Amino acid sequence: MNTKSLLIRNGRIIDPANRVDQQGDLLVQDGCIAEPGGTLPADVREIDAAGCWVVPGLIDMHVHLREPGEEYKEDILSGTRAAAAGGFTGVACMPNTKPVNDCRAVTLMILQLAVKGDARVYPVGAISKNSDGTSLAEIGEMRQAGIVAVSDDGLPVRDSQLMRRAMEYSDDFGLVVISHSEEPSLSQGVMNEGVVSTRLGLRGIPTAAESIMVYREIALAEYTGKRVHIAHVSTAMSTDLIRSAKARGVRVTAETTPHYFTLTDEAVEGYNTNAKMNPPLRAEEDRQAIRLGLSDGTFDAIATDHAPHSILEKEVEFDLAMNGIIGLETSLPLSLALVRDGVIDEKRLVELMSLNPATILGLKAGTLSLGAVADITVINPDRAFCYSEDQVVSKSKNSPFLGWNLLGRAVYTIMGGRITHEIR
Amino acid sequence: MATGYQFFHRHILDIGHLSADDIDHILNTAESLKEISDRSIKKVPTLRGKTIVNLFFEPSTRTRLSFEIAAKRMSGDTFNISASTSSATKGETLIDTARNIQAMRPDIIIMRHSFSGAPYMLTKYVDAAVINAGDGTHEHPSQALLDLMTVREHKGLLANLKVAIIGDIAHSRVAHSNISGFTKMGAQVFVHGPSTFIPVGLSQLGATVCSSLREAVQDADVVMTLRIQKERQNDPLLPSFREYAEQYGITSERASWAKPDALIMHPGPINRGIELMPDVADSSQSVILDQVTNGVAVRMALLYLVLSSEV
Predict the structure, then answer these.
(1) Of B115, B137, B176, the CB nearest to A317
(2) Which neighbouring-strand residues pair with A384?
(3) Which chain B residues are closer than 8 Å to A202 by Cβ?
(4) What angle do CA B77, B78, B82 make, to 5 degrees?
(5) Of A196, A384, A403, B68, which is most buried, counting CB atoms within 10 Å of its CB?
(6) Average pLDDT score over chain B
């Protein structure tokens, strides 16, 4: 299958990097995008993409693959299979594995395991050694080994001086710092603080816990002139802070997730541990503000924060349940709903899910330029399916969207010319 | 109550799932069962052959004793499991504990747990009826029902009464159940306390948050004070008990702002001299021990009703 050529016919090709949005055919030869026309190779496989969108392979810049160390939740092979099933050809994996990806050896191990995966794996290195927030990890060496960014994701960097130094030092290596923005003393709760937490008697996390730290990162980026990327933004106030910082020219980028633009804290009702994540699901006004931020360009990327947990961590009392949900297989359909709702258009969807993550991380991806590596997603926006538990490709099933009827999905995922996922 | 009314609740987890008719029915049942406790032989055969497990993951004297007496007065067989002796300390999950207890075929499990929502989880793994005896900072429905019973007994009705609840509303499961219960029965609930004790969104749950103690207590029919804690899990809520007593404690002078025949209530245990001054707690207006007496009757009613609503 690898060596075969592919001719993707009659699709709507959407390639924002090249300002393309037109009906046409796309030829893949030797794993790269080739010039159509001329004589087709004898072994060419034709893919009928009528009614479908042909876009650069989707990239999720924020996932947890759990390997090394917690392979019972997910591993690099299962995680990349889930990615391919969701239309992703590349994922950036956070370093909070066991051990933490804070050195070349771990980075190399991840990359080696990923060779057999169904999606490209872009490792994110730790900011601090063991992500303990005290001293810088060997970022330069990890860069040489292949990391694409640094983050202590899962934990906030409490020490502002360390964060400042991380922004300065990483920039020398062309790496962006990804901030998990959370003021720890304010975020001792288990869900959003609001009427729902009061009704359920669960300890709340105020929106200020996030915005305080978002503002700190902006202040540091503004002062140093360096880059920062804000991960998994969940609140209206954070969105406003990022919008105004961008207007001032601060080098800040930001992502949000499908759950923050789809759900609110009402999803916790019934003590649903599959609606427990950090930052938590917020109120309706936050959800609306996130959607506005997607529409007006405040957000650069949609990422999933794919966080697999087994029933050992989720079928427990709500207070004891671990934070996080899987998202790779539901991200595209939930984002397509934004297009149907008129929040964003098709071009912007491709920017948010492919071109911009590639740009932020400095990847040679996110385009369908001639000669580019053939990472392609073919999306049927009208393909309906029920996301039932038996369909879940990820090892873990912790999704609040189980049982949802979703509309639109990837029908082909192609990585370097190889079909990693297809639905006939 | 509508004709053809039938009580149908397999579990009693919170007040929110009960209708006003359900609450009336529970209180009527409790009133009819109350006299059993005044007999010389305090026993009826209603729950003979029924197994009732008190599964308490948090210390409790009053509530556990009250449920146990309620069950025994109806001839139920009661068994007590407390956190110190339970498998929880051996690392067993709540689900496994639940499945093991279920395997011994209990009819009712009465559960107290320090985590909100734990009784909901229990219902998914057992066939027994589950009664919430207090879960985290969520609800304590039997306490609210005994409070409603006590007020109805003294005032004859619940509708249009002014009920003042003073103290730590945010962390009180009793307050949460009472706000839900009293508003459902047509009473008006006014709350006051330091802002560190007032949770977000309280007004959306039907309570009026008052900016002064006087506003809350003025002309009230019921003044309920809550047990307070100075800090919880490193969360500094109050400078000192002394200051709380001075600013928010119910003294006889402050109690006099309420109607002359107002009821003074407290779910216990009382911090005497902090949220409630001893002379008020022991005054003729105090119905604190009536609450405890009615607790047995309400719990007898709940035990009876959850089993009689079996299909």
Answers:
(1) B115
(2) A407
(3) 116-117, 136-138
(4) 160
(5) A196
(6) 94
Pairwise CA distance, residues A84 & A119, whole Å: 6
A41 Rama sector, left if φ>0, alpha if ψ -120 to 50, beta otherwise? beta
Q: What is the pLDDT of residues A175-211, one digit of tens each?
A: 999 999 999 999 999 999 999 999 999 999 999 999 9
A357 token code pair = 């993550």
Inspect the interface and report whether the beta carbons of B170 and A203 lie closer than 8 Å: no
On the 0-12 / 13-18 / 19+ scale of CB atoms within 10 A, B82 is middle
DSSP code of residue B286: B
B30: its two tokens: 């409790």
Q: Which residues of A touch B176 (CB under 8 A)?
A: 198-199, 201
Beta carbons of A84 and A93 less than 8 angstroms apart: no
Q: Is A117 on the interface with B (CB under 8 A)?
A: no
Q: Which of A181, A298, A286 is nearest to A232 (CA)?
A: A181
The share of chain B scoring above pLDDT 70, in percent, equals: 95
**A257 confidence band (pLDDT: 50, 70, 90):** very high
Burial group, residue B261, by CB count within 10 angstroms (0-12, 13-18, 19+): exposed
Q: What percent of chain A has pLDDT over 70?
A: 99
Express each pLDDT in A75-94 by its tens digit.
Answer: 999 999 999 999 999 999 99
CB contact under 8 A, B94 and A317: yes
Strand A418-422 with A404-415, pairing: antiparallel
Active-site annotation holds for B112: yes
CA B223 to chain centroid, in Å, comes to 16
Which of A352-356, B200-204, B277-281 is the least confident region? B200-204
Quick check: A1 pLDDT over 50?
Answer: no
The maximal CA–CA distance of chain B, rounded, in angstroms, is: 56
Region of residue A37 (phi > 0: left; psi between -120 and 50: alpha; otherwise: beta): left
**Is residue A204 within 8 angstroms of chain B, CB to CB?**
yes
Q: Which of A200, A270, A320 sits opposite B138 (nearest CB)?
A: A200
Indicate the pairing of strand B162-166 with strand B188-192: parallel
For residue A283, list chain B residues with Cβ-Cβ distance below 8 A. Answer: none
Walk me through the domains of chain B, giving residue ranges and CATH numbers.
20-139+292-308 (3.40.50.1370), 141-289 (3.40.50.1370)
Task: Answer whether A221's CB lies under 8 Å from A248's CB.
Answer: no
Domains of chain A: 57-361 (3.20.20.140)
The residue-averaged pLDDT of A137-146 equals 98
pTM: 0.94
* B259: nearest Cα among B190, B185, B163, B152: B163
Whether pLDDT at B163 is above 60: yes
Is there a contact between B144 and B171 (Cβ–Cβ < 8 Å)? Answer: no
HEC readout, A100-166: CCCCHHHHHHHHHHHCCCCCEEEEEECCEHHHCCCCECCHHHHHHHCCCEEECCCCCCCCHHHHHHH
